[in-house]
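Subgroup meeting minutes
Present: P.N., E.W., G.H.
Scribe: E.W.

1. P.N. recapped why we're keeping a running log of single-chain structure predictions: easier to compare across weeks, and new members can see raw inputs and outputs side by side.
2. G.H. added today's entry (258 aa).
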Amino acid sequence: MPAIERRLALWHQAVQDLITLGDTLSPADWATPVGDRTVRGTYAHLVAYAGGAPGRGYPLRDLRALTYDNARLAQAMLAGAVRLGDADLAARAVEALDWYVAHVGLSAGMLRCVGNRWHRREDDPRSWRDDGDEQPIDAAAATEALVEAWHHTGDPRYGRLATWAYAWFVGRNRVGARLYVEGTGGCHDGLSATAANPNQGAESTLAYYQALLSLAGAGLAKLPTATKPTATTERATNRPARTATITTTTTEGPTDAG
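Output recorded in log:
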């Protein structure tokens, strides 16, 4: 793996860790000294760095490139701001997410993830029409970040956008292809301009379930219900049959997302 990709992988892992760190700390932990700061102060510094410090603009749109898992930066910033009680930082995180939602077309109704050739600041935007394969972790990140925004703002728009981002997995994408495979419970590894990648890897499968469970946890989706297996389904899949439709509800009424 090239050095830049290793660094990006480490950065994205750090952002993931930042999202969950606040949940593990007790009130006494927040006050523990760390060098010339408390744990709370250090955490605030990391959140500001992830999101772009005051005066440095906003995250995402000011980056040199959009690669993958892009919405995690805004999500980390928002999650950290909420835990710190910093309303200004939270507002900047939501603005960053709004910018990203517009960039990937989701505000118009369909998620078009950044392809694996990436979007660089110096690019001619017309080149992004052929930017490579979209990746499930990007759709999952968008879904979870929008659920975080819905929790924070209570704005039904973010709930609706979250369900649209999830729907990328089940056919609401530029190809109209389902990436989630009901028969195996797996998820295809990517989406090209013409079809889904035939592989079904662990990362992509976990990304699908992360997106689905984030919606379910927020009450924005109903999980499939198990039904009694039949001889036909057991022969075909070696697993119990499950209903294929996941119904998500927004202010515009139920939407068939599965």
